[in-house]
Write a structure and sequence with these properties.
This protein has 160 residues and is an all-alpha fold. The chain is built from 5 helices and no strands.
């Protein structure tokens, strides 16, 4: 949804800003869904790796929480409203959440898949941002890619 204020003249057309905002909205939805899943697992993990996973999940969900603002604010800077409800995130997110409390190993697997899903969404949004010469969005997405690929690697390493 577009913000109706003073015209934006930053060298990116209205149509291109809308396309990038749409991709960033998917990124925000995936990021929020992953944040929520990671926080849920932090609260509910059990087993011999409890302390390791409890702390690792806290590190990851804290970083993810802090990143949400940057994504939403970039959508706003492009002249669009950021999605901010569970209903909007459910429609936009590519990540499905578990309906129960999984085992610690399944939590790790779900978080690997979740981080990989966010990376794929970021890559798609990055392609769009690059195509319209939107360097601030490309920079933001490159940073998010680095974090989510690293998180996926660290989680995957626990399964070996």
């Amino acid at each position: 949804m577009s913000d109706k204020g003073m015209a934006i003249d930053i060298g990116i057309s209205d149509k291109d800003r809308a396309a990038v905002a749409t991709e960033l909205s998917k990124m925000l939805a995936d990021s929020y869904t992953l944040y929520l899943m990671t926080h849920n697992f932090h609260w509910n993990v059990t087993g011999p790796l409890f302390n390791t996973l409890h702390n690792m999940f806290m590190t990851q969900y804290t970083e993810e929480w802090e990143a949400l603002d940057g994504i939403a604010e970039r959508i706003r800077a492009l002249g669009h409203y950021a999605p901010g409800t569970y209903a909007q995130y459910a429609k936009l997110s590519s990540i499905s959440e578990p309906e129960d409390v999984p085992t610690a190993e399944t939590m790790i697997q779900l978080l690997v898949k979740g981080n990989e899903a966010v990376a794929k969404t970021a890559r798609s949004a990055l392609k769009k941002a690059d195509s319209v010469n939107d360097q601030p969005t490309a920079d933001l997405l490159t940073q998010r890619l680095d974090i989510h690929e690293k998180n996926a690697w660290m989680l995957r390493s626990l399964l070996q």
